[in-house]
Give the backbone structure.
Amino acid sequence: MMVSWPHWIIVAIIVPMAGAVLTPIISRRNDKAAPIWALFIMSLTSLAALFLIMRVAQQGPFSYLVGGWARPYGIELHFDEFSASIGIICLIGWLALLFSYHYVAESIPKPRIPYYYTLVLLNLTGMIGFVMTGDLFNLYVFMEILSLSAYALVAVSGERVAEMAAFKYLVMGAVSSLIILFSIGLLYAVTGSLNMADISTRLAGVENRLPVMLALAGTAMALMVKAAIFPLHIWLPDAHAIAPSPISAILSGLVVKTGVFGLLRVYQIFYGAGTYELAGLNTTLIWLGAISIVMGAFFAIFQEDIKMMLAYSTISNVGYIVMGLGLASQYGMIGATVHIFNHALIKATLFLGAGALMYKTGYRTLTDLRGVGKAMPLTSMAMSIGAISIVGIPPTAGFLCKWYIALGAFQAGQPAFGFALVFGALFIFIYYIRMVNSFYFQPPTHPEILEVGEAPVSMLFPVLLLAALCLVMGILGRIPLSFIEPAVTRMLGG
Amino acid sequence: MKKALVAALLILAAIPLLLAVSELPPHGSANNATYTHVSAYYLEHGAEEAGAENIITDVILNYRGFDTNGEVTVIFTALAAVLAVLLLGDASTAAEDKPSHSVSVVVSFIVRLLAPFIAMFGVYVIINGHVSPGGGFQGGTVLGALAIVLTLVLGEDEARRLLPERPKPWLQAAAPLTFIAIGLAGLTDTGFYLGFPTAEALSWIRTMWLLAIEIGIGVGGAAIIASIFWTMEAER
Amino acid sequence: MIEALWVNLDYAASVVLFLIGLYAVIAKDNLIKKFMGLNIMETAIFAFIVALGVVDGGDAPIMGEGARAPFTNPIPQALILTGIVVAVSTTALALSLIIRIYKQCGTIEADELREME
């Protein structure tokens, strides 16, 4: 069978989808098989992702027409530089699956385990489809796959609080999905098309602007719910803190970013149309981003529970990304898109590290975990690297993109927000210092904590690899920046 | 107090929404963009190109088949989600004897009498979806509802025999698997995932493929609906 | 504006229905009622999108003998079939969560659950 390059797009969706559907069948005979099968499937998917990224780096964006129907009659899958986030999805997904191998066996009821892996694979399928599709309704379908599996994964541990957090997440998520569907309906009503590129061209000629503006406002608001921007964030802390740690890593690193990614697609459509005034949306995004940075960091300072702290820090970091988008300047956009990638790395390091600590010690508050730095030196070191990265101290991964967003603020002529960013970083610095302090410099609350050793390799390896990547991406940070630059230039240039 | 506030806010929110929908192209006019752009193409070419006289079936399974592929994955996700949320650690709690509820003789008799006809109707809806209103989802729901009704009347153990243990996971996964199989067949045949053969003479193959997908969706949908119901019933 | 709204009465009705559902989601305390609110919202959106496909005097888009133009727009109907399946899936998951919450806490009133925390 001849496989031309664009076919890897469909491979990258179909392989995890088929893998997920087959997981319950595979694990019926042997319940140990599910994690290995899931890892195998993700390895294949990563291979496809690798080919896709190489291709887009060499030759720029390309499309795949499902069923061979020409645009706009069929569904178009479109792979551009932004879609290259499929790489980080595969990486974090793979490592979280590996981490789950021992972690999940102890923390969730046994009959649920095959379905846990099914749902993780489905979740990754949804995200992979989400970043590659070029059709609005298809985007909605993939969004539902990923949201539905995310709601269930929050509740999978079976604790009472987890189920209530999942329900809260479900209601807010479902309402925002409906608002997005409503907006898709409005856009369809005025353009008669569902293909993003086609909508973009046809929007330029629409006379009645009010429905379009309503669709824009609705989508932006709904996506901000998904991205947990400050006043709409209330579902996030509970859901992210209570979910099993590998799931927290996926949720915080990847699922929240789909909201931001959706905003990026909305920008692409409206910049492409050319004749729309986006200043209102931009200002809203900048302000809400700035408020999220400060408020997220502020709440994080008061958290005792380590995962709760990380969850609030996610709100703060998504604030950076959204602010960078809203600045709508070259540097701001580049910084924001790369921060999507870097924050995923950093937050996965921290959540998986926290999971390893909880797995070995059984404690989850900073007070209880005092002195763990001596007992689990490698994990604690990895988490310290993550902490330094998230504050944005050079030469770690967090530095360059935050620097770019700050430059973007100056470029857009709004230096005040550049200072808000620095201010937020200061807050973040405080609470991560608290974490490092309690790991290394405080006498242990529970002396027996000094006896525990490192977590098994399946958990240690992902944490260490991610921490190493945080450092490497800090040094090689220019590569993703220059990779994404042509896409941003193309988008802003119309 | 809270309720009045919410109501007031929503009434306020209604104003821009109503303004916006009043500016939409007039309802029902044949000159709307919705009608003249993509759908005009479907209505004109659908019946010859896509394999079914029912254009909606063409859109669902052929033109926008990938959406439906995602959609059957959504319903499979729902099954996995329900199982992941409801299954418990030890099987013993599920086995504890519940009070057997008695069913009235009349209801029981009528359900037993109607069951074969409902089943037949479900199958009819599934396999006739490409020429008349209906299709895999609709028929699958009818069959799933039949399984639910039978559970209520015959009791759980009896009804569960409808879905034997061995093929159960395959049947639950039937819809996405059929889709992927047809998609890959299209890939080898036309070079596009879910590409249906295009030649004029091969229209019967197109129709056969549509039928295969309809049956897959019907069987899978029914199995999933029944399984979700039984899982909830066991945890009641 | 009123005249335009009269022409687009179907859309306006779905907007109102949508807001009624949203009211139930926000203001009701019972989790099942909250979720019924969500179902009302779903129905509103489905009605809105299906209404987009209406053509005056349109027939069902099924070709074959005796079929005559104009036909209604097939796309919204196809989209909404997908939408309904998504809604069913969400409902199944939400009800499972409610079952579990009820089993563990003995209540499904949001205010009582909040007190328990």
